[in-house]
Specification:
With 351 residues, this protein is α/β, with parallel strands linked by helices. It has one domain: Alpha-Beta Barrel (TIM Barrel). The protein has 18 helices and 8 strands. The chain has helices spanning 4-12, 28-37, 47-52, 59-70, 76-93, 104-108, 114-132, 148-158, 183-191, 206-214, 231-239, 248-253, 265-270, 282-285, 289-299, 304-316, 322-334, 337-341, and strands at residues 15-21, 95-102, 135-143, 167-171, 195-200, 220-223, 244-246, 275-277. α10 (206-214) links the parallel β5 (195-200) and β6 (220-223). Bound molecules: adenine and zinc ion. Zinc ion (ZN) is lined by residues 19, 21, 171, 199, 222, 280.
Length: 351
């Protein structure tokens, strides 16, 4: 158990989330509600029964259930409701900025248009900004179990909505689908001026992290926990300040590590690597962002100082403009979070 003071600190401190799949925020209750209104029959009888199926031995077992859940999303309103529900969570957890992944191919291959899904998501983002000031970025991911040709097709569809998109990523089954498979489409992404990220070193080896940097020219790595197996790679991550978006509860649930203490988070921080904490697919992994912070604080016996560093990293590693990054980093400094974290004074933390 962590202390109430640390718990409050985690809750109150402004944070950015940089690795969350909108389809992974689909709570069973909302899933059932949307399935019902769309007249879609699902295998499980109730939200409770569905939740009980959330026991995974690896990434693939999770993905099978996750894609099945996403199949009930048909209309713009469905994507709106899904996104708005996540933004409500952000508001309740003091997540002030979020960079959201979505998997267009999961939906377009079922006949849902790119326009339907991105419009629904974007309308919710606009409302979340108006209501709570939460800023966001959108990052469509290519599904690595599909062909590069398919990825190129999705990329071309996405170009019509380019003003809504910050970058492109790569997710789904890492094993058997190395970064090299997507070299061409990532080059196209770069040529069109978008940022690039990729899931790598989650179930796959450190080599996938190196290859994502070299072949796909990504500026951020999603997960990347296997990077610690390669000393030279660690050095490169520090020197180039390549951020890692680590997802602790996800890694535990998908058995990337046996126990939370096996996550190399302390090593990453000790090396001054820009590691961040994120929720990945919170509806499936038993906790949103603050639950992830609490879990690592408890496991690694961390205090406010480490939590503050991780919150600072979340803004430094974000795709916010420098001006906005500095605004949040200034807020963390000026509101006394640092002095509190250093034990200099016991002041009241801002709300
Ligand atoms: N899609 C959703 N969550 C994912 C994860 N953790 N790894 C790869 N693809 C994903
Ligand atoms: Zn992910």
């Amino acid at each position: 158990m962590i202390t109430d003071t640390l718990n409050n600190f985690i809750h109150n401190i402004p944070k950015a989330e940089l690795h969350v799949h909108i389809e992974g925020t689909f709570e069973p209750e909302l899933l059932f509600e949307i399935a019902q209104r769309n007249n879609i029959q699902i295998k499980h009888k109730s939200a409770e029964e569905l939740k009980n199926a959330y026991n995974f031995n690896n990434l693939q077992e999770f993905l099978d259930i996750y894609y099945e859940g996403a199949d009930v999303l048909l209309h713009e309103q469905d994507f709106y409701d899904l996104t708005f529900a996540y933004l409500q969570k952000c508001q309740s957890e003091n997540i002030v900025h979020t960079e959201i992944f979505f998997d267009p191919q999961t939906h377009t291959q079922r006949g849902v248009s790119f326009k339907t899904l991105i419009t629904g998501i974007n309308k919710a983002l606009i409302d979340g900004f108006k209501k709570w000031g939460i800023t966001s970025r959108l990052i469509p991911n290519f599904l690595r179990h599909l062909s590069e040709e398919d990825a190129i097709k999705m990329f071309k569809e996405a170009l019509e909505f380019r003003e809504l998109i910050t970058g492109f990523g790569l997710d789904s089954s890492e094993l058997g689908h190395p970064p090299a498979k997507f070299k061409k489409v990532f080059q196209m992404v770069g040529e069109e001026g978008f940022l690039r990220v990729a899931h790598a070193g989650e179930e796959g080896p450190a080599q996938n992290v190196s290859d994502s940097l070299r072949l796909l020219k990504v500026s951020r790595i999603d997960h990347g926990v296997r990077s610690v197996d390669d000393k030279l790679l660690l050095k490169e991550l520090v020197e180039k300040q390549i951020p890692l978006t680590v997802c602790p509860l996800s890694n535990l649930k998908l058995k990337v590590v046996k126990e939370m203490k096996d996550l190399p988070l302390q090593i990453l921080l000790d090396h001054n690597i820009l590691a961040t904490i994120n929720s990945d697919d919170p509806a499936y992994f038993g906790g949103y962002l603050n639950e992830n912070y609490r879990a690592v604080a408890e496991t690694f016996k961390w205090s406010e100082a480490e939590i503050l560093t991780l919150a600072e990293n979340s803004f430094k590693a974000s795709f916010l403009a420098n001006e906005d990054k500095n605004k949040w980093l200034g807020e963390l400094r000026n509101n006394g979070y640092r002095s509190f974290a250093n034990g200099v004074s016991k002041i009241t933390i801002g709300q």
